[in-house]
Write a structure and sequence with these properties.
Layout: E1 2-3, E2 12-13, H1 40-47, H2 55-62, H3 67-82, E3 92-96, E4 99-103, H4 114-126, H5 128-139, H6 143-152, H7 163-167
Antiparallel strand pairs: 1-2, 3-4
Helix pairs in contact: 1-2, 1-4
């Protein structure tokens, strides 16, 4: 939901999706949501380990309670910045300054194959600075925004930024 107060320049954005919600640390298996927004460790459990009956416990062992949501939030921010849905496997027009480019969603693969999405995410994270600099030029040349996205999309879920640290991040100062 995106809203703005009448006569105000500020924008209020709320992201709500409980489609794949689960109780942290409980035994049980993971349910799939849109895979392109799920973090690599989640996809790894679904694809490689074939979502065993205690996959939530396995996820809890390798990540923090917020790690899945922070990755997904970072993916949504990335989608806003690029202007292309991450999941779309078709070429889309992207206006970049005076050029029109044709691009695919950054994590999109035909058939939504978990292993292939995982590999696209890995390639993205390995080249995150270069990719972000390309897309951030469209919005702004913000080192703070680039740093925030880098911290949200860290490959190691234990190293992903926490929600409380996000709120104190320099990019959000004055917001």
């Amino acid at each position: 939901m995106i809203s703005s107060e009448p006569g105000s320049a500020s924008l209020n954005i709320k992201i709500i999706d409980f489609g794949s919600a689960y109780n942290w640390g409980d035994s049980g298996s993971l349910r799939m949501a849109t895979p392109e927004y799920m973090p690599p460790e989640f996809l790894n459990l679904l694809a490689i380990k074939n979502a065993s009956s205690n996959s939530i416990e396995q996820l809890a062992e390798i990540s923090n309670p917020w790690s899945v949501d922070i990755w997904s939030f970072g993916a949504i921010l990335l989608e806003i910045i690029t202007g292309i849905p991450l999941w779309i496997p078709l070429k889309c027009k992207l206006e970049n300054k005076s050029k029109t480019l044709l691009k695919y969603g950054l994590f999109a693969v035909k058939g939504r194959d978990y292993d292939k999405i995982y590999l696209k995410q890995k390639a993205f994270v390995e080249n995150i600075n270069e990719i972000l600099s390309t897309y951030l030029q469209k919005w702004c040349d913000s080192k703070e925004l680039s740093d925030l996205l880098f911290q949200m999309l860290r490959w190691d879920p234990k190293l992903r930024i926490s929600p409380s640290t996000i709120l104190k991040h320099p990019y959000l100062e004055g917001v």
